[in-house]
């Protein structure tokens, strides 16, 4: 079973003179345990591709399978359930809830998904990313690198089949970013999860088993 199987994916936004073709016929297949880097400049369509692959954006053409399910006609609720049980998403700006502690940011999604012992599992995952002594801290009390570690713990705690990371080091300095990349690949491997990293950093891309290049809405090896 492919984790992601995209065929001739097209995405067009806007109408009339404002109509813009973002994705122009993209094919992508990612298998279990595989690590893939998608490299390309800003505006090339990388983030739009990840949004379509995860069901956060509806393609305007082509066929998209996620975890062997056709997501083209799925309801938003069904898509949310599919993501909740099978995908972890890590973003450049962390997307932590500011009124929740690190522990709560990781535990609450587990509780909403009905996973038993959510708080215990959240604490354990935070220990694994080096934040066992930061459980009670709020995002504003954490450094950027620590916030991204919380985001990684939140994504990996449910033991997903697939991790999607969109510019995960974009808001971090070089030294902190290198540590985050090491952690991201380590936790993906420990979870047995496939990993797709969207980046413009060639050094990061070299860590993946396969590198693809995105330019002007097209994807190539």
How would you describe what is shown here?
The structure is a single chain. Helices cover 34% and strands 27% of the residues. The chain has 221 residues and is of the alpha/beta class. Strand 4 (61-66) and strand 5 form a beta hairpin.
In short:
The protein is an alpha/beta fold.
Written as H for each helix and E for each strand, in order along the chain, the element string is: EEEHEEHEHHHEHEHEE
**Number of DSSP strands?**
10
Q: Number of helix segments?
A: 7
Largest sheet: 6 strands, mixed
**Average pLDDT over all residues:** 93
**Low-confidence runs:** none
Note the beta-strand portion: 25-35%
What class, by secondary structure content?
alpha/beta
Strand order of the largest sheet: 6-7-8-3-9-10
Backbone CA Rg: 17 Å
Please report the distance between the alpha carbons of the first and last residues. 22 Å
- Measured as a percent range, the helix fraction is 25-40%
